[in-house]
Design goal:
Length: about 350
């Protein structure tokens, strides 16, 4: 019986919060466009503020804005009254949040905005409240009550505020043409940072490149492979174009097939794999890892205009925290044969 009541409570909470979101959606108007125009044209930063649960949501909104291309930070209203108002400049825009619009702690920020002509976007359910009347632009929250059966704990209102913050962040992201590379620059750490790494971040370059000419003998190939310690040698023609590749596996197979000392009479051109698979520096490492796993290879040369500029090794990728996705392991649209 308790289980059924718990499920009923869960359904009720979810339904009430969905109702609030639907109401907010139906009430969106040109105020949203005006707020986006203002935020996009802000020369300084978007300063988000709010008290209590609105403050917690505000912190998340500021973090999302900052990570998606809109410089932003959160100012606690109580701290603002004790010196942090100095963080606000005339080039900033303030996004103030209060469901009721009557949070007393916001009063000093509102007065400061008016005194110094700092644009104010008010987020509240009550346009006639103190916050609503102070705002240059009002973004209205749904006035549909809370999911809390007491009607007291911020639930539906905080969900709606959070979604409104996402609406602003995503719309600004799209307006600015914010790219995956832009996102990567702001997320260098953790799993997300690893996922966004490109081949250029991990590839071996310069003196680490194991290269030899098509006429190189086996002694030179073995010496190059041993000194560079990448298990392969790229073979280039007289113009420096990559025409082949020799791996340690290729050497072993050639040695088995050759008579005594016959291998050492061969040239690189005789045993190399012609037109090997290659990649480019701008490809995501995750895609390259899946491709190498699907083809059972451990190295790929990185080329630019047919010339080798780097080598990426599977072991380096694994050490950087990458794993392969078996469902995507067959994809290799950006890994091609050297022309």
């Amino acid at each position: 019986m308790t289980k059924n009541k718990d499920l009923e409570s869960a359904y009720h909470t979810i339904d009430k919060e969905i109702e609030a979101l639907n109401m907010m959606r139906s009430e969106l108007d040109d105020s949203l466009i005006k707020a986006l125009d203002l935020m996009q044209s802000t020369k300084g930063r978007v300063i988000v503020t709010g008290m209590g649960k609105s403050g917690h949501i505000g912190s998340k909104i500021a973090a999302t804005l900052a990570s998606t291309g809109t410089p932003s930070f959160f100012v606690h209203p109580a701290e603002a009254s004790h010196g942090d108002l100095g963080m606000l400049t005339a080039d900033d825009t303030v996004l103030a949040i209060s469901n009721s619009g009557e949070s007393k702690e916001l009063s000093d920020i509102l007065i400061y905005c008016k005194r110094y002509g700092i644009p104010l976007i008010s987020v509240t359910k009550n346009p006639d409240s103190t916050l609503g009347k102070a705002g240059d632009i009002i973004l209205k929250l749904p006035n549909d009550g809370e999911a809390c059966p007491l009607g007291l704990a911020p639930t539906s209102s905080t969900t709606a505020t959070l979604v409104l913050g996402d609406v602003l962040a995503i719309a600004l992201l799209e307006r600015k043409g914010f790219s995956v590379n832009d996102y990567k620059q702001r997320h260098p750490g953790g799993k997300l940072g690893a996922i966004l790494q490109k081949v250029s971040d991990l590839m071996h370059v310069g003196d680490e490149l194991p290269l030899a000419g098509e006429d190189a003998n086996m002694r030179q190939i073995i010496m190059t492979m041993s000194s560079k310690m990448l298990g392969c040698v790229g073979i280039v023609d007289k113009e420096g174009n990559l025409t082949g590749m020799i791996t340690d596996g290729d050497l072993r197979r050639a040695m088995v097939k050759s008579a005594d000392n016959e291998l050492f009479s061969k040239k690189a051109l005789d045993i190399m794999t012609k037109n090997p698979k290659v990649t480019t520096a701008g490809i995501l490492v995750a895609e390259v890892v899946n491709f190498m796993n699907s083809k059972s290879i451990t190295q790929l040369f990185v080329v630019e205009n047919k010339k080798p500029i780097g080598v990426i090794h599977l072991h380096d990728c694994l050490r950087a925290g990458f794993t392969f996705d078996e469902k995507k392991a067959s994809s290799g649209n950006n890994v091609s044969k050297a022309a």
